[in-house]
Every structure is written in C-alpha cells, then in structure tokens.
Design a protein that fits this description.
By secondary structure, the chain is α/β, with parallel strands linked by helices. The chain has two domains: about 110 residues, Rossmann fold (3-Layer(aba) Sandwich); about 230 residues, Rossmann fold, CATH 3.40.50.300. About 40% of the residues lie in helices and about 15% in strands. It contains 15 helices and 13 strands. The chain has an eight-stranded mixed sheet, with helices on both faces. A five-stranded parallel sheet has the order 2-1-3-4-5, with helices on both faces. The two termini are about 15 Å apart. The structure holds adenosine-5'-triphosphate and magnesium ion (MG). The site of adenosine-5'-triphosphate has 17 residues, from helix 6.
Length: about 350
C-alpha cells in the first residue's frame, strides 16, 4: 500500500493532519517543501496540500491528477478556491468541519490502496437486447476475483438487484443516496449495499416510482464504488442524457449489446453513432445473423464478443441465482472472456 502525501510547512496544521491519519490507520509521507512534494506527487493515492504551500505548489504546475485537496484550519477565503483550481484540486477542506470526511477519505486509501476498480458501462444497442443481463453476468463472474458491484443507472429497467437475486437483501438503494450532498467513503458504500458472494447492487427501490439520477449523488456513488470495488459495471439507459454521457465517458470501456436482427442492428447503429468515438465502444453480439466484419463496418464499432442464447435464464433469475448459473454456459463464458480481455488491456493504477 502507498501512503498518502501531506504537503505543508505549517507544523500546527501538520499535527492536525497526522492526528486524522492516525485515526484512519495510515502513516503519510510528509513533504515540507515544493521539491519534495513534486517527487512524491504522482505516487501517492491521495494528496493533501496545506494552504501555506498551495500557492507555490500551483506555481510549480505539477501534473494534473485525481484526489488532491487543499486543507486549511480557518474559514475558507475565496482566493483559496482559485488556488485550488489552479492546482487541479478536487476541493478545499476546512478543519475541523471536514474532519470526519477527511478521515473517511484517508481510510479509503488504507482500504483500497492506489488501485481503482475496472469500470465497464453496458448499454443496449436496441431495447431488450440483453444489456442488463450482460451487466449482471459480468459482475457475477468478476466477483470470483474480488468485490464487484452493478450500478443501475436505468430507472426504467427491471432493477439489477432483482436480476442478481439481491432484491430481498437489506441495504442502501438510490433513494437513500439520491439527495445526499455529502461525500461518500468507499468503505461506507461497500458495507451498506445489498451483497452476496462478493457481488453487490446499487439499484432503485422495487415499489418506488422511477426517478431520475441525481448528478451529485451519481458522481459520488460512482467514485466511491470505484474506490471500493475491483469491478464496477454500470447498466446504462439507452436514452440520451448529459449525465449518462458523462458517466459513460468515465468508463474504461462501454459495451453495447446487439442482436443480429435487422431492427437490432439498425438501432445499434444509431445508438453507437451518438457517442463521440464509436470506434472505442465494444459490441457484444447475440445471434449469428451477420459476421463480425460486416457488423463492425455497419455499426462503426468493433465486435469484442459473440455469444449464443443462454438457456434457462428466466428460471435462474426467478430462483434468485443471477443470470450466470454455470460459468460454462454461453453467458458465463462470454463474461469471462470480456473481463479477461479488459483486464489485460486497461491499466488499473489510479
Ligand atoms: N444472453 C441471453 N440469452 C438469452 N436470452 C437473453 C439474454 N440476454 C437477454 N435475454 C432475454 O432478453 C430479455 C431482455 O434482457 P435485458 O433486460 O437484459 O435487456 P435490456 O437490453 O437491458 O433491455 P432494456 O432495453 O429494457 O433495458 C431477457 O429477459 C431475456 O429474456
Ligand atoms: Mg436494461
């Protein structure tokens, strides 16, 4: 595990921060000046920059990176936000007000280290083409190797908790997170989601009227999910929406499920065409109606996996076993291959 980096020459601020680090069970690396900070800048999973060194740090223009925060013990004057912006910091934390949240972020570092989860978006090329089923299959297979979660970003879908057999398991759902304005720690989210055998679901309440995703809650939940799980699979809705586009842009890979009927391919063409770079998407194809090359040419995105129909799917879901009953079936095999190819291709360090 790599230590967080604290950048400050202010001894009393450092004392405060060391106390919080101790509460989180981590020992930070401390840089008392800019050159020392720059040396450790990219290695650390999280960086706290004291307000005393924020201006010289911003002037040194270190490489932009995630998880940088400016910390101070007085009320935050406006100019600090400008410096934070120049430094590429995520936000400014005022002590002691943000203490609890800072301890949680430091705890996340202890928990997850620098790694972040592989994030895969799945969207249907046409309605009912199997996006939700494939998203759940990926999480089910991935859970063998480490914690996985399916994030249901489609309020009109069947509910991924139902597909995975987690609908009767207690835990947090979107409605509990929907109006949050606070930061979420990876551990708090992971511990509160309905889960079975390493696989969790963040979905909508069964009986509740479908609502829209709330931008703040969605961003926070995804960021925490990614820090707390090895694999995050997002069931994306087909409807165009700026928040969904933003979420898709944060995925390591977006997969599009395609059925090889004329209507299925025509709809997939349209759907893929709405992404800024259709060539970066990957098609997961069910049916043998068209060969890979023709499909890729027509749709504008490469085929990453083909599979046949999975028999006994409805029964497996009704029994609460999730879509993958056997890893040797067409669905299990396809999910294993897709995960293996993504794991090889995508660097996992933050
Ligand atoms: N791999 C598969 N093998 C056989 N049938 C499948 C498979 N995937 C999906 N189906 C069938 O298609 C139906 C719809 O699947 P799913 O809900 O995953 O589609 P979707 O693309 O998410 O649909 P929506 O547009 O409603 O979001 C399933 O209930 C099942 O009957
Ligand atoms: Mg769906």
């Amino acid at each position: 595990m790599t230590a967080p980096l604290f950048v400050t020459a202010d001894e009393s601020l450092l004392d405060e921060l060391l106390r919080l680090a101790a509460a989180a069970g981590t020992t930070p690396e401390v840089a008392h000046d800019v050159p020392a900070a720059l040396r450790a800048w990219l290695k650390a999973p999280l960086v706290l920059v004291g307000e005393d060194l924020a201006v010289p740090m911003a002037r040194a223009a270190p490489t932009r990176r995630d998880a940088v925060f400016v910390v101070l013990t007085a009320p935050v004057p406006d100019r600090v936000f400008q410096v934070a912006l120049a430094l590429g910091a995520e936000s400014v934390a005022e002590l002691p007000r943000s203490e609890g949240w800072l301890v949680e972020r430091l705890t996340d570092v202890v928990d997850a280290g620098p790694a972040r989860g592989l994030t895969i978006g799945v969207v249907g090329g046409s309605g009912g083409s199997g996006a939700t089923i494939f998203a759940c299959a990926l999480a089910q297979v991935a859970a063998r190797g480490g914690p996985s979660v399916v994030v249901d970003a489609d309020p009109l879908g069947p509910g991924v908790d139902r597909v995975l057999g987690l609908d009767l398991v207690d835990g947090v759902r979107w409605d509990a997170l929907g109006h949050t304005t606070g930061r979420l720690s990876a551990r708090a989210l992971r511990d509160s989601l309905p889960r079975r055998e390493g696989m969790a679901a963040l979905s909508w309440f069964g009986g509740a009227q479908p609502r829209r995703l709330q931008p703040f809650a969605a961003r926070e939940a995804l960021s925490a999910a990614r820090r707390g799980h090895d694999t995050v699979v997002i069931d994306l809705p087909r409807a165009a929406d700026p928040l969904v586009d933003e979420i898709a842009a944060r995925c390591d890979q977006v997969l599009v499920t395609v059925v090889t009927t004329v209507a299925g391919v025509a709809a997939a063409m349209r759907l893929c065409g709405r992404f800024p770079d259709p060539g970066a998407l990957g098609l997961v194809v069910r049916g043998s109606g068209m060969d890979d090359e023709t499909l890729a040419r027509v749709v504008g995105s490469p085929v990453v996996q083909r599979m046949g129909d999975q028999r006994g799917l409805a029964e497996s879901i009704d029994l609460g076993l999730g879509p993958v009953r056997s890893r040797r079936g067409p669905l299990g095999r396809a999910a294993i291959r897709v995960l293996a190819s993504l794991g090889d291709r995508i660097p996992r360090a933050a």
